[in-house]
Specification:
The chain is built from one helix and no strands. With 48 residues, it is mainly α.
Length: 48
C-alpha cells in the first residue's frame, strides 16, 4: 500500500513538472509571436 502511494506521488509530481514546462513554453512562444507581430507592424509603418 505504501509502495503504490509512493509511485502515485512520483507520477503526479512528474505530471506537474511536465505541465509546468509546457505552460512556460506556451508563454514563451506567445511572447515571441507578439514580438514578431510588433516587428512586422514596425516594418509596415516604415514602408508607408
Amino acid at each position: 500500500m505504501q509502495h503504490s502511494f509512493a509511485i502515485t506521488r512520483w507520477v503526479l509530481s512528474l505530471i506537474g513538472v511536465l505541465t509546468m514546462s509546457w505552460l512556460i513554453n506556451r508563454l514563451i512562444s506567445e511572447t515571441e509571436k507578439q514580438q514578431i507581430f510588433a516587428k512586422h507592424n514596425d516594418n509596415t509603418r516604415v514602408e508607408y
